[in-house]
Every structure is written in structure tokens, then in C-alpha cells.
Amino acid sequence: MHRLLRGGELFMLGGFVVAAAVTIVLVMPPSIDPAATAATQTSSGPVTAADRDLLIKVRQAGLWEMPVGDYAQTRAESQRVKEVGRLIMQDHQKLDLLTRQTAKKLGVALPSEPNADQQSWMAQLASERGPAFDKDFANLLRAAHGKVFTVVAAVRAGTRNAEIRKFAQEGINFVMRHMTLLESTGLVDHTQLPEPPTPSPAPPVAMAVEKRRDA
């Protein structure tokens, strides 16, 4: 009986150890490879994780927008959508070359295919024709450009690398041009775009001025 009890206690203790180990795995964040976040030094300044992420995201943007710009030539009904698709495709050919050149200078490895979301958007557009294609082309690409614009602008504002600064400036110009082109189709539903961030409360400047005058 004593031996059975001891065995049961050991079994229970083992169960607690396993449960504790599972809890630690679930609660503790995954370890991050320091090499993925460390800055690398170059002749044009440090290249940070944010700088590398910018090059990767712009590369992936081109890898799906160039094909769907080509889709527009045979699948769109609207002549304006066809024209916008052609212009975006041509711009991304130029931007992709610049991306690859900049990445090579800075030693950044680039992906060779779009991400999972972009691949699903490509598949959706490849299955559509006519007005359905026109509408989804304009809205999918406009939403995607809005997301990448915030990344490009944030890196442009804070990068310490001269090459990335020049690249981000070009990227901003391309993205703004593409958002305007897509909106020129008249098909973008602006109510479905993300809300702009809520501004921080402004300091009561006028009140402070009045108090100083009273003093």
C-alpha cells in the first residue's frame, strides 16, 4: 500500500512538472534571433531591422503588383483600370530594380515570392473578369499601398542609413503616385480604408497665454 501511494505521488508530481513546463512554453515569448534585429555597419551608415524590413516589403509589393498589373490588360473591363494597371506594372519594374540594387549594396537578402496574403489576392484577381475584377483590383491595391506607405514613411523619418534614406524617398513618391492612380478609377471605396490614427490632444496653448497675461 505504501509503495502504491509513493508511486501515485510520483505520478502526480510528474504530472505537475509536465503541466508547469507546458505553462512556461505557452506564457514565455519565443526567443528572437539577435542576428535578425542587430544593425549591420556599412559605408552609408547602419542598416537596422526596420531598414531590412522596408526593402523586403517593397520587393514583395512588386512581386504581386507587377503580375496583377498584367492581369488588368486582359481581365479589366474599364479602360482606365487597364491604363492604371499598366502604369503600376511599369513603375514597379523600375522600383524592383532599385530595390535589388540597394539590397545588394547593403547586403540584405530579398524574397523571391509574395507573402501569403499577396498570393491570395493574386489568386482572387486571376479568377475574376469585368466589373468584379475592376472593383477588386482598385480596392485591393489601394488598401495594400496604404499599408506599405506607413512603413516607408516611418523608415524615411528615422533611418540612419543614407542609401535607405534615398530609397525610401523614391518609395514614397511611387506609393503616393499609385494611390492617386488607383483613386482615379473612381472605384476605390474610401469608407473601407483604415481610419487615420487619432491625434494626440493638443496642449492648451491659448489658456497658458491668457494665464501669463493675467500674471
Automatic annotation (TrEMBL):
Region (Disordered): 192-215
Gene3D superfamilies xrefs: 1.20.1260.10
Domain DUF4142 intervals: 50-179
Keywords carried by this UniProt record: Membrane, Transmembrane, Transmembrane helix
Residues spanning the membrane: 12-32
Biased composition, class Pro residues, residue ranges: 194-204
InterPro entries (UniProt xref): DUF4142 (IPR025419), Ferritin-like (IPR012347)
Name of this protein: Putative outer membrane protein
Organism: Nonomuraea jabiensis
